[in-house]
Design goal:
- Helix 5 (186-195) packs across helix 10.
- The chain is α/β, with parallel strands linked by helices.
- It has two domains: 3-144 and 346-491, FAD/NAD(P)-binding domain, CATH 3.50.50; 149-342, FAD/NAD(P)-binding domain (3-Layer(bba) Sandwich), CATH 3.50.50.60.
- It has 14 helices and 27 strands.
- Helices cover 30% and strands 24% of the residues.
Length: 502
Amino acid sequence: MEHFDVLVVGAGISGIGAAYYLQARCPGRTYAIFEGREAMGGTWDLFRYPGIRSDSDMFTLGFSFRPWTEAKAIADGPSILKYLKETAADHGIDRHIRYQHRVKSAAWDSATSRWTVDIERGAEGEPHQVTCNFLHMCAGYYNYARGYRPPFPGEDRFKGQIVHPQFWPSDLDYANKRVVVVGSGATAVTLVPELAKHAAHVTMLQRSPTYVVSRPAEDSFANRLRKLLPARLAYGLIRWRNVLGQMYIFRLARKRPQKAKAAIIDMVRTALGADYDVATHFTPTYNPWDQRLCLVPDADLFEAIKTGAASVVTDHIETFTADGLALKSGQTLAADIIITATGLDVQLMSGLAVTVDGAPIDLSKSFSYKGMMYSGVPNLSSTFGYTNASWTLKADLTAEYLCRLLNHMDRKGFTQCRPVNDDAGLEAEPWLDFSSGYITRAIDRLPRQGKVAPWRVHQNYALDLLAFRYGAVDDGVMRFSGPSRATAEASAPATMEPALTA
């Protein structure tokens, strides 16, 4: 049976970044990347809807080790995918990727310090097994095979097309068509101005408003600085400027939510004009950063609304009709195409089934260690980015810490590591303090966090940087042991936490 020191699952932005760090900092270890789809890129290959782009600047969404050199800081999906492919090729990471390798389950055996991983490979789903010493999950945070799509009354009567953005048809013709986009999140605010360029009219139908902020697609300061300084130095300075700026704005929004709310609403009112009903369509009932803010580059959404090419309706769907939608207010919306930008189906570790020494594990009963490992589960880590900043900031730190952990085990002769919660009084809290629908729908399926480190999941890059890069690896919570079950039992404290079975 084929064996790897480290098996990375997922060839998106997290998996490519993890592979770079493994090569650079753990050069003696073998690794492979198993990717379930036919191509690398994750989100940036899967989503093909018009206008697909980042909602974070590329100086923080880009890798710390590879400068982003394009002019646009808010980049489109194809440019991001090109960046990922070039990174993988330049570092030889692409040679370690095995496509159409869908990881289904993983079974840990303490006697051998190994995971046995069941996969389905190829178009036919041929069953196959490999083993690894460490399993690192970089499969994202949502179900690639299914988006969130609530049923709507009467939708079978609609004579037009119903499309979910996660599965955008390549041949969809929306030119001169009446389009309704159901939703008000990042996908909706991206789609509306792009579709409005060619559609007869686009209506964004939302149940409730979302905070929408505009910023320039190009960072003029960054572009000037890159002309004066070497690329890597300029990139590092811009990256830290943006990180600190994001942290300041987030902290201000949390500390003075009403002031932050007023500032955002004033910006929208300035963009749309005093006569526009900002109170109805762009004034949420919740505070900023209770949910993620939506970013629109160069105010493109507001421009589409001002020209009349797009409009916003805040209402609830009563039923689909043959030619559109009937709303609870009594209003009707005519449509040729209805796009259900209703969100993602959150899924931890791609739905991987995990067993430890024959016992199935329910990760929702575990505590999250540093936001990347799970109490009672050995030699398993996963990447989950920030909700209030760029995903890659946390992904980079997670990969760095994984390498520190592996190298510590090498130096000390350990083959197993397991975060252990022996504090019976550790109070459980939801893993993410976030009220977005895609999170609240899945919160019972996610692990928990505690009130104190290392069980606390910080949404703060500076705190995580200190903990991940400079904090002790052998912190008293992470327990290490040798290759055999007997050695593991002899070295473990009496309070060793049992695995959390389903």
